[in-house]
């Protein structure tokens, strides 16, 4: 931290490492706050366990975010994430949009936080996941329900208007 400000998510997590060390659960969900969805967490967690993934990445097939503000994954036929594009000009034709929600073990997260603190890495996707696509088993969880992304004031307005649709309300607030 410089001047008390966190430079990225890994820097922020390093700042609360005492809290992370005292979490009693074996697994954590790591995520940003710019999405609205009704995520079946038990299903995501079960898939994470069943797949043997190191990291499960929650994704949507319905691209909602602006490419320059979003991340996209490519998935092999075996179901493993093979590429992670961060803020590209355009999403690939076969891409899933990452919602930047992740399930991983507490121990893996702690080792990532320690590594990043020691090597001045501040970004989770670019500094942790992207360089380890071959060594970490990243598996997508494809959420097919409604997803609202909030990357701008305009997005906030349009996602608010989405709530006028009874199907969206039913999906979010079932």
Q: What's this, in brief?
A:
34% of the residues lie in helices and 24% in strands. By secondary structure, the chain is of the alpha+beta class.
Let me know the average pLDDT: 91
- For the secondary structure, the number of strands is 8
> What about the largest sheet?
6 strands, mixed
Structure class: alpha+beta
Low-confidence stretches: none
What would you note in describing this structure?
The chain is α+β, with helices and mostly antiparallel strands and 174 residues long. It contains seven helices and eight strands; from the N terminus they run ααββαββββααββαα. Strands 1, 3, 4, 5, 6 and 7 form a six-stranded mixed sheet that branches. Helix 1 crosses helix 4 (106-119). The model has no long low-confidence stretch (mean pLDDT 91).
SSE diagram, text form:
Elements: H1 9-15, H2 17-21, E1 27-31, E2 35-36, H3 41-51, E3 55-60, E4 71-75, E5 81-86, E6 96-105, H4 106-119, H5 124-129, E7 138-142, E8 148-149, H6 153-162, H7 166-172
Parallel strand pairs: 3-7
Antiparallel strand pairs: 1-6, 2-8, 3-6, 4-5, 4-6
């Amino acid at each position: 931290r410089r001047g008390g400000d966190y430079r990225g998510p890994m820097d922020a997590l390093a700042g609360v490492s005492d809290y992370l060390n005292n979490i009693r659960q074996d697994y954590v969900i790591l995520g940003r706050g710019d999405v609205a969805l009704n995520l079946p967490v038990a299903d995501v967690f079960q898939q994470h366990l069943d797949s043997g993934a190191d990291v499960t990445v929650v994704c949507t097939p319905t691209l909602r975010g602006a490419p320059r503000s979003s991340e996209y994954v490519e998935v092999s036929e075996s179901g493993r994430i093979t590429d992670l594009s961060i803020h590209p000009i355009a999403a690939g034709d076969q891409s899933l949009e990452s919602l930047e929600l992740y399930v991983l073990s507490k121990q893996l997260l702690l080792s990532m936080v320690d590594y990043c603190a020691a090597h001045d890495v501040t970004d989770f996707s670019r500094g942790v996941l992207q360089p380890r696509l071959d060594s970490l088993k990243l598996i997508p969880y494809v959420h097919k329900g409604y997803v609202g992304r909030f990357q701008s004031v305009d997005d906030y307005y349009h996602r608010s208007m989405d709530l006028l649709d009874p199907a969206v309300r039913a999906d979010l607030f079932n």
